[in-house]
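Technical appendix A lists one of the benchmark inputs used to test multi-chain prediction within the project. The record comprises two sequence entries:
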Amino acid sequence: MIISSGSAAIERELIREGLAAICEEMAVSVIRTSHSETVKSAMDFSTALCNRDGEIIAQGVTLPNQLGALPDAVEAILKEFHGELEPGDVAMVNDPFAGGMHLPDVFVVRPVFLEDQVVGLVATVAHHADLGGLVAGSMSPYAEECYQEGLRIPPVKLYHRGEPDHGMFALLSANSRVPQILLGDFAAQIVACETGARGLSRMIDKYGFESFQAQVIALLDYTEELTRKEIRSFPDGRYSFTDYLDDDGVRSEPVPISVEVTIEDGSVTMDFDGSSPQVRASLNSTLSFTKSNAYAAVRTLLRSEIPNNAGFFRPITVKAPLGSIVNCVLPAATGTRGLTGFRVLDAVFGALAPALPNRVMGASDGGLSLVTIGGIRQNGERFSVVELLSGAWGGQSHHDGQDGVPNLGANVSNIPIEMLESSVPVRIDRYGYVRDTGGAGRHRGGLSIERQYTFLEESHLSVRSDRSSIRPYGIDAGRPGTPSTNMLEADGITQHMPSKFSQRVAAGDRFYHRTAGAGAWGAALEREPEAVADDVRNGILSPERALEEYGVVIHHDTLQVDETSTETERGGRRLSSDKVDIGPTPIDDRWVGAEDDGIGQGFVAPLSW
Amino acid sequence: MSATSPHEAGLQRAGIDVGGTFTDVVITGPDGAIHSFKLPSTPRDFSEGVVDGVSEVIRAHDVDPAGIRDVVHGSTVATNAILERKGAKTGLLTTRGFRDVLELRRLRIPKLYDMTWKKPEPLVSRARRLEISERIDVSGEVVKELDIDEARRMIQALVSDGVQSIAVCFIHSYANSRHEAAIGELLTSEFPEIWFSLSHRVLPVIREYERTSTTVLNAYVQPTVASYLEALRVKLDDAAVEAPLLIMQSNGGVMASGAAAQRPAYIVESGPAAGVIASAALARAIGLNEVITFDMGGTTAKASLVENGEPHFTAEFEVASSISAGSRLSSGGGYALSVPFIDLAEVGAGGGSIIWLDPAGAPKVGPSSAGADPGPICYGKGGTQPTVTDANLLLGYLNADGLLNGDMPLDIENARTTFAREIAQPLGLEVTEAAWGSHELANASMIRAIKSVSVQRGRDPRDFTLIAFGGSGPVHAAGIARELGIKCVLVPPRPGVFSAVGLLQARLEFHAKKTYLQTTANLRREDLQKRLNELENEARAGIGETSLQSGSFAFDAWAEMRYVGQGFELPVKLPEFQPDWQAWLDGLDEEFARQHDLTYGHRTSNPTEIVHLRISSRETNPPGLPVDRGSPSCRDVASKRDVYFGRILGTVSTPILDRSGLPLEPFPGPAIIEDYDATTVVPPDFLVHRDGSWNVIIEQGTDA
């Protein structure tokens, strides 16, 4: 008995490795055969294998915030076609109110048969280039209802017994601005599903269905145990936090995302009661997407290598009030809910900061800033590009916040400046860190990054950013981060712009975007003076701010620490501050304008040379 | 030991493969026979081990050093400088506004859900990255003139700071190199003691991060590599070996040591390349069109594809990246180095990989490794954690009396005790069962590497032959082949020094590449011809730096193309020019579409564009395959021992042979074949024989 359980552990591990390899094969197949740059380069897709009940047994996650996106879609398809799935069928869904997330994300699911029995399902979800709606890309920030956003697809079959449904393909094609890319990406998803189905069948053949099924149950149990084991090391309790979006892009009021996290005997419950009602803009998140981000937050706080499967979800419960921005209902628009997802991550991390001060970091930049530039060249050619600007991580218990990294929720790449300039009529005048940004602290927050554009032809500029009025929080007396900034220079006049806007720009106009700097960890007076001096020597901190924020006196000529003056300066300040902050910075201290933190500086580097 | 030689007189070659642990020296004798020697590397000064090894082979086999035509060298000296951060104190000059490009990289990070991940420190700190006023636009037009006085002041500041080597990378310098060249002239005339690397010379291609990073790596390792090569030259001369020194590049070609000192970025990953080149030469020699190479050493295993005698290449590589389970989905872990590489998948599973249990009791193999020091428990050098090699010993695969002809004794009792305590007992298994499970888990991760170069490229591994080498490759190869449905495994003679043998077959190679952004529809023949001529001249000059101009060279023209709007390119060999230009353009488009279909499974009618042009030149008549009569029979092997082959096949009393004892006709396993430097395992369900060139051939039994 004992002997067989040991062998079983090895066999289970071989099955886990095999399933993960199949998901990876599916992912490579998607990348290899897809047409759109979003899928190929930004890897905005995921692949999964499920057991016959629709439970995820392995997921190939390529975009972090899609962890947990699949169960609802698979469940919706199983429910719709209960007992009606046949060999060779392929089903799809994108309806945010029937298992989907937002319209561009289309799920494609294929059953796997052993003789005449469904023994599993394979699934892929990919972000499609365009499914109609107000704007190219189907993600207008100004959509007020989902009906404006494009084609809504309930669970339907795309293939019947191996035969494509030509009507369905015609319908898809007729509703896209770029039908060729759309169909190409569907083909990639279908090929990946075939790859996955073949791999799964082979594996079931090898182990025999009964034994495979038993091992999969053991695998999910093991994953659950691994997850619970680590959660048990967290202190039990209830922890709440509210973070905010600056505004919904239409009305300029902060949008709260509230969460109460309960840790109890190896389980985590996240209740988003108290969050904003859904908004008449496209920032609304479905419960499935909220769950994805909440799962991703927990997963990020765990240190073990945990397999991506349903066993991981078991100890975790996510609740959100119906009709809220984190569990929206018809007719909510959902196109740009990515930003809401980033804030869900921030809210969960913020709540758990007092419980796990050594794991939670200061809040990051707050999520990708989207800068879209499009138009028609003088020679009649159309151009357009979406830039994903990012980012910084907050300070952590053991080291400074990372500079120049993507948000934890979306592992994307930047566009090379030389490539950008070769494809759209802009010139980039600066791309780099901004001095004196990021929260000050024992371990400082990551720096703001700026990108300065000069438009060479008339263009349309559209920007979706956040964290311009409510800054990223710091942890345990670490200072909050620094705000994001948008500035536009037209006809020689420079003006601040809101975090979300859209407008026409002329040749010669300039645009400046600065991402938010991240929050710090620990009190600034506890930062090693040498680390402060290093930042000064590296040109990311001014001697003035070194003194003001850190109480460190730096010689202007030698850029060395003046130890005696620093002792005196810091000693005096320690006496006057006896407040001990635990957890994230309170909201009152995070408003821009609540204190002078340099926002008035505007362009840190001059726009011109 | 007598055989006739296919080699012409005077075509003797020395191959020297320096790894972190061992230095392997292989010299072909005048009769074409191979002499090899393995000795510990000398990390303090790698050239010492090299010369000791060469001298030893010369002495032991009575080689006339004057008869050696050339010395081909693969070295980790550049890689080590990067891994250990022991390169030069380096500065970087950039266009104003872009000093942070090096550190911002492409943003993407290699791991999801890992907050503890830390970005690798940039090789040039921000304080040593200085901006110069100048700007060139995408079409090569100067938008802002270079401020040469400012540049002089910046260089002076770097020099005062103790910088020894300076990288220069300006925006769009691939389109107009004037400003960078002016900095080069300034450095040459006013700062002659400073090393420098100009991006348009190192890598004149679009994408500023990749170009900057590659140029910085070049600058960072250049002083180290140059002085190493210089020292090695002197020592070889002292040993009366005056033959020219050739250096293996990461793409498997070789270049003169002078060229390598100028462009050390091209030799950074030369180590793994040699094994693939050896496999390719072997495949050509015995007519194998479809080969998967499998190289398993102490810390990692590597797989790659050789089709029709040619390896696959990539220009996407990161140095010093931690092992990523052979996945092509992760990037951002190391420093981008965009020069041609042999495309390999690497996983953290080698003989030294540690076997451990996770918090919920699941057994795991690697990626951490006991390396060579302390090494596996059985080496008796202080290793305390069970490794794959320990498991292989407990299964009976390795000779408990010791490796390397008994020079390296093994401590099986200690391995057994620790394995029992750490792995077997917690799992509730017999030691042998637990060792078997560990062996299988190691296989699973190597299978993933093999799949990533085959299945994930649309290739069916069942159509391929597995060439297995490296110290541990032949132990695992048959089990992996069984799992993947590979019918035939080939273990070449001297599997432990096979990479060094590959150096003997390397050809001179030089690639000249430059960005040329042009839509195919607007392509003009005169302009294209002019640019190709420039590249060909550059390639000829590159080859001219060697002293071996007697060889004949082929020059192939390539375009790296994409559909307009795509973010990456595919190489297309340019068709022969023809009088009808439009027909030629259509032919080019067709060839691109065909490649696209082959690679991505679809083609479109979208407009295409060229991104880069490349001239590849390569020696056309490479050295022939040396005749190897296999490792000499080196000791008395025990006739039989008990070996475990899994629950179904069980423990079998297995004959132990050496290579010379193998018949030419297949006979059924099980068998263990002990070479001096490696052990080959033939399970009971396989057949084994040797061919006329002393390769061991293992085939899946028909009834298996």
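Residues 2-33 of chain A form the longest helix (32 residues). Chain A touches chain B through 89 residues (CB under 8 Å). Comparable benchmark entries are summarised in Table A2.
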